[in-house]
Amino acid sequence: MVIMITGASHVGKTLLAQRLLEKYKYPYLSIDHLKMGLIRSGNTDLTPEDDDELTEYLWPIVREMIKTAIENEQNLIVEGCYIPPDWRKDFDSSYLTSVSFICLAMTEKYIETHFDEIIGQESKIESRQIKGDCTISDLKQWNRWFLEAFSNADEKVSLINEDFGEAIAEIMDRGFLCAGRK
Which of 107, 132, 164, 174 has minimal Cβ neighbours within 10 Å of its Cβ? Predict the structure, then answer.
């Protein structure tokens, strides 16, 4: 089983991946780690701010890693914002039966009422290079993009509307073990 998690910055992708790792003992790949490894090693001239170009650059690599994991009947959690809304077109049905997809987005109301808490949790799992430039407006814009883009691609978006913990617990309760998998 491959569990893919995407969503805007600060939405809790890494926290969810960590909790799934703890529950299922599936390893996880942070697309951000891959991105920074490629950038820091000089294998690309892209920068962390080149989001659209990074998706085009990283997705083919991540996509083939997912296929390899499925072909080898290995479990994997993949998390990051560099998964395109039309990701399904890159997999035939034999792969899709082994993929569980999660897109997280926060509502504007949630962002408005929990902004300080969101920013306060930004380094809960991984230390960020905190720049102090993330605004309520940025979070709303990023989450609106994920909600619209993935909804338009007929993907279910898990909305964080009132209680972050409850939203994550609901996702965790879905169950992701695939019969016949290690």
Answer: 132
Neighbours of 48 (CB within 10 A): 11
| CA–CA separation, 105 and 6 (whole Å) | 9
The whole-angstrom separation of Cα 147 and Cα 105 is: 6
Structure token digits, residue 83: 């998964």
Cα–Cα dist 88/144, whole Å:
21
Distance between CA atoms of residues 72 and 79, nearest Å: 20
Residues shown for the chain? 182
Pairing assessment for the beta strands 99-106 and 2-7 based on DSSP bridges: parallel
The helix (run of H) or strand (run of E) holding residue 104 is strand 99-106
Separation CA 29–CA 17 (nearest Å)? 9
What is d(CA 82, CA 5) in angstroms, rounded to the nearest whole number?
Answer: 10
Q: Looking at residue 134, what is its pLDDT?
A: 83
Mean pLDDT by 10 residues, the chain (182 residues): 95 92 94 95 95 96 98 97 98 96 96 89 54 82 97 96 90 67 36
| Residue 129 burial (10 A CB sphere; 0-12, 13-18, 19+) | exposed
Q: Write down the pTM of the prediction.
A: 0.90
Q: Which amino acid is at 148?
A: E
